[in-house]
Amino acid sequence: MARSVAEAKSAPGHSAPGEGRENAAQDGDVRPYLVAAHANMRRIKRLLSEPSAEAADQAATLLREIEVQLGCVAAILRQHAAKPQAEIRASVEELQTEVAALAAFLAGADKMLSGWLDAIRTRRGGYTERGQAAPLTLVKKLSVEG
Questions:
Q1: What SS3 state is found at 3?
Q2: Shortest CA distance to 95 belongs to which of 57, 61, 55, 68?
Q3: How confident is the model at residue 20 (pLDDT cuts 50, 70, 90)?
Q4: By CB neighbour count within 10 A (0-12 exposed, 13-18 middle, 19+ buried), where does 25 fall?
């Protein structure tokens, strides 16, 4: 994620609220980007509580925006070679924790769904999860009319 401020600003999905973002970046102020990233994280949490394909797509887009916003923060801090204030460090660490938790949640959900789909496929194919033939079930009564 080693990008310059200019590259980060020109990236699609770049967003930080307010018209003063250009001045904020020049002044070394990363707060608008952090505020936008936190707002996007809140939107992601809300979207994930309403599961749908559209919500998942929007959440993925917002997650990419957070990546760009954090890239802007890193580029601005690197450009100004300043040690971030405790408030800014805490905000970035909070975002890192939330993104890591979200990544773990999504990875776990993906693993669970993949396992669930595999189990359904093997059972429908007449096999157990271990690949052995499933036991036959006997039908006690069979009635044929015709």
A1: coil
A2: 68
A3: low
A4: buried
Q: What is the pTM of this model?
A: 0.63
Tokens 């973002």 sit at which residue?
21
Residue 89 tokens, joined: 């460090």
Question: Other CB atoms closer than 10 Å to residue 60's CB: what's the count?
Answer: 13
The pLDDT tens digits for 93-138 are 999 899 888 888 888 888 888 888 887 777 666 777 677 777 777 6
DSSP code of residue 130: T
Is residue 33 within 8 A of residue 69, CB to CB? The reply is yes
Tokens (6 digits) for 79: 């450009």
Q: How far apart are CA 32 and CA 34, in angstroms?
A: 6
What band does 26 get if pLDDT is binned at 50, 70 and 90? low
